[in-house]
Amino acid sequence: MPCVILCGGKSSRMGSNKALLPFSHIPLAQYMYKRMQKIFENVFLVAKDSTPFSSFAPHFIQEEGEVYAPLIGIERALESLREQRAFFLSVDTPFIEQKEIDLLFERVREEQIFYAKTPQKSHYLCGIYHYDTLPIIKEMIEKEDFKMSQLISRVKSGFVEFDDESIFSNLNTPQDYQNALKRLEQNG
After folding, report:
1. Where are the alpha helices (DSSP H) in the chain?
2. What is the SS3 assignment for 66?
3. What angle do CA 63, 31, 181 make, to 5 degrees?
4. Are 94 and 168 in contact (CB under 8 A)?
5. Quick one: which of 35, 127, 177, 188 has the fewest CB in 10 Å?
6. Rounded distance, CA 139 to CA 160, Å?
7. pLDDT digits (tens, 9 = 90+) for 80-110
8. β-strand 122-130 against 85-90: which pairing, if any?
9. What is the distance between the alpha carbons of residues 82 and 14, in angstroms, rounded to a whole number?
C-alpha cells in the first residue's frame, strides 16, 4: 500500500508554505517523506507545484485547479495511483509514529475510509482510503463540497481511537510550529 503525504494546503494561518518550513534541518515535507519511507515502500507527495520538492521526492502527484482542499489531493492520488487502498497523511503531523500507523493497518477491515481518532478530534487526514471512494469524492468536488466530515458520512468508515492527541498535533500557526520545534528538540 502506498503512502500519500498531502502537501497542497494554502497554509494561510501559518503565513508561509508549512511543507517547506525547516524541521530537523530539512524542509518539513522532506522530514515526513524520509520518515514514511522507513514504513512504506512507495511514498508520494501531493501538491500544486512539484518544484520545491523535486530535490528529495521522486514520487510526486500534481494537484490541479485553484481550490486548496485535502479532498482535491486525495482525489488526484487515488486517481493517479489506482491502488485498491492508500494511506494518507497530512504533511503537518510530524509526530505520528509507526506504531499508530501499524494499529490502523491491523484494525482495518472492509471500511472504505479508516482513520485515527482521539477523544478531542477525528483525524481524517491520517487514514486508509479505498479506491472505491473515488466516485463519491468526484461528485463532492463537482458540487464544491470539500468537507471531509461530509465524505466520512457518505462512506463505510471506521476508526481507531487513540488517547494521546499530541501524536496528531498539526502545525497550523507560527505558535504551533514553535511548539513543535521545542518538542522535537526535547525528544532528540
Report:
1. 28-37, 70-81, 98-107, 134-142, 148-154, 174-187
2. coil
3. 115
4. no
5. 188
6. 27
7. 999 999 999 999 999 999 999 999 999 999 9
8. antiparallel
9. 33
pTM attached to this predicted model: 0.94
Residue 10 has pLDDT above 70, yes or no: no
Distance of alpha carbon 76 from alpha carbon 9, whole angstroms = 14
State the Cα–Cα distance between residues 34 and 17, nearest whole angstrom.
Answer: 19
Helix, strand, or coil here: 131? helix
Cβ neighbors of 162 (< 8 A, separation 6 or more) are: 100, 103, 116, 117, 118, 168
CB atoms within 10 A of CB 89: 23
Contact 159, 136 (CB under 8 A): no
Residue 171 amino acid letter: L
Which residues have a Cβ under 8 Å from the Cβ of 82 and sit 6 or more positions away? Answer: 131
Q: What 8-state DSSP symbol labels residue 158?
A: E
Amino acid identity of 98?
Q
